[in-house]
Amino acid sequence: MFEKILVANRGEIAVRIIRACKELNIRTVAVYSEADANSMHVQMADEAICIGKGASSDSYLRIDRIISAAEIADVDAIHPGYGFLSENAHFADVCENCKIRFIGPSSQAMNLLENKATSRALAKKAGVPVPPGSDGLIENEQEALKIAQKIGYPVMIKAIAGGGGRGMRVAHNDVSLIKGYHTARTEAEKCFGNSAVYIEKFIENPHHIEFQILGDNKGNIIHLGERDCSIQRRNQKIVEETPSPLIENKFKDLRKKMGKAAIRLAEVAHYTSAGTVEFIVDDNGNFYFLEVNKRVQVEHPITEEVTGIDIVRQQILIAMGEPLRISQSDVTFKGHAIECRINAEDPFDDFRPSPGRIEMYYAPGGRGVRVDSHAYAGYTIPPHYDSLIGKLITYGKDRREAMDKMARALGEYMITGVKTTIPFELAIMQDPNFRRGVYTTNFIEQLLGGPRRDLIEEKI
Question: How far apart are the C-alpha atoms of 198 and 168, rounded to whole Å?
């Protein structure tokens, strides 16, 4: 049993990890930047150590300072949460070399799944379908043109590193390909410190569906079903739900096929801990591998709600060397869950970030409502980090009940002093296409660019 865990993160995920540790009677150490001195995770942890200034490059991305804090506090393990250093193989390796357990996959597995390009190659080796595309990195314009002309437009230029829709561009012809190639590389270098890109066929009107996996150190790997993450804006997820309406209503056999594919890929990578295998699905039910997220996902709570399995708790137990006590046949799915990401952004102003002091904060409650957040009245949202305030999760016996509860809960959620995405997400819950479960990754663009824009703005 671990006696003390350092949480190498901030915000709602740090709070989530600390709660799981408290339930396991494990002491916690929070690290924080100067901008986060009054953050909730600092107040909840048993100990707290400042590791630098507000910018993440001076704090949460500083491996040396995090390891120093871990050694000073004499911790057994480090949980990286999501983002920041959570998928950094070097960080995992440093932890291992310092005899500190890294709560996540091994550095070897991370290296095998280091980026989207190497993950794609591993998926092919495992027999998992991938979209047509380049076999490796694209070194220049000429090579990009050659590949695009071979597989046919439209194509997607994708950064091998990072996520969140950054370093990605769609090209429909040679001119937009060259422009997109350079733009994607520049953006990727700025965001991830790695300008490398590859190219694959762009699947139009796709569904973004991912599978949650858990693997222990004994070779046991299971999946916990799918999450539909197709409601996105600029490739950043806004609303997630499980089960997927597409699979439930149209392609029920896909759950078994995609689940097996996710496990097969994890087995080839010798994957341990929690992870997510992401796919895209076309209108004909064909699915293609996208990437592996080697960490706990922002949207993990909805899977917890329908399976009853505490994913963060499982991560900690696996890191302690415990075998999974759950087999695939033990995993059952009950009801429906939806998550809305509540961001400090202004939906009236192209979703511009809205950092600042929260004047009033009232979270919704009631049966089937869960709020994962680090916010409170008087808390100041720093401008240095992601704009996520919290996650609102609702659970119902079926999709209609989960949607109705979400609409009710969004209406109760009161945050003043900063702009939030709450009114926009309430409009989504009331949209007829969303309520029918008929949507793809283009849903938001169609909502804001089509004839329903006036209606949506009126609701906002």
Answer: 10
> Cβ(44)–Cβ(15) under 8 Å?
yes
For 254, how many CA atoms within 13 A lie in the half-sphere containing its CB?
Answer: 27
Upper half-sphere CA count for residue 374 (Cβ side, 13 Å): 30
Whole-number Å distance between alpha carbons of 378 and 386:
19
Domains and CATH numbers, the chain: 4-103 (3.40.50.20), 132-201 (3.30.1490.20), 207-459 (3.30.470.20)
Neighbours of 95 (CB within 10 A): 25
The band of 450, judged by pLDDT with boundaries at 50, 70 and 90, is low
Quickly list H helices, 300-415: 300-307, 311-319, 399-412
Q: 3-state DSSP call for residue 175? A: helix
**Beta-strand relationship, 369-373 and 207-215:** unpaired
Six token digits for residue 30: 């929070």
d(CA 434, CA 205) in angstroms, rounded, equals 15
Task: Classify residue 273 as left (phi > 0), alpha (psi -120 to 50) or beta.
Answer: left
Closest-CA residue to 4 (of 386, 292, 320, 324): 320
Q: Would residue 295 show up in a list of annotated catalytic residues for this protein? A: yes
Of 53, 7, 31, residue with least CA distance to 384 = 53
Cβ-proximal residues to 68 (8 Å cutoff; 6+ apart), any chain:
none
Question: In angstroms, rounded to a whole number, what is the distance separating the alpha carbons of residues 77 and 227?
Answer: 29
Q: Strand runs (DSSP E) across 152-310, as ranges?
A: 155-159, 168-171, 197-201, 207-215, 221-233, 236-242, 273-281, 287-293
- 270: β partners: none
Tokens matching residue 356:
């600042």
Region 16-23: mean pLDDT is: 98
Tell me which amino acid residue 377 is.
Answer: A
Q: What percentage of the chain has pLDDT greater than the value 70? A: 97
pLDDT band at 165 (very low <50, low <70, confident <90, very high): confident
Helix, strand, coil content of the chain in percent (nearest 5):
35, 25, 35
Which residues, in sequence order, are bridge partners of residue 7? 30, 79
pLDDT, residue 164, reads 65
Candidate list 295, 341, 370, 399, residue with the active-site label: 295
Q: Can you name the residues that pair with 101 across neighbouring β-strands? A: 77
| DSSP element (H, E) containing 3 | none
| Cβ contact 232:292 at 8 Å | no
380: Cα within 13 Å, side-chain hemisphere: 10
Upper half-sphere CA count for residue 347 (Cβ side, 13 Å): 22
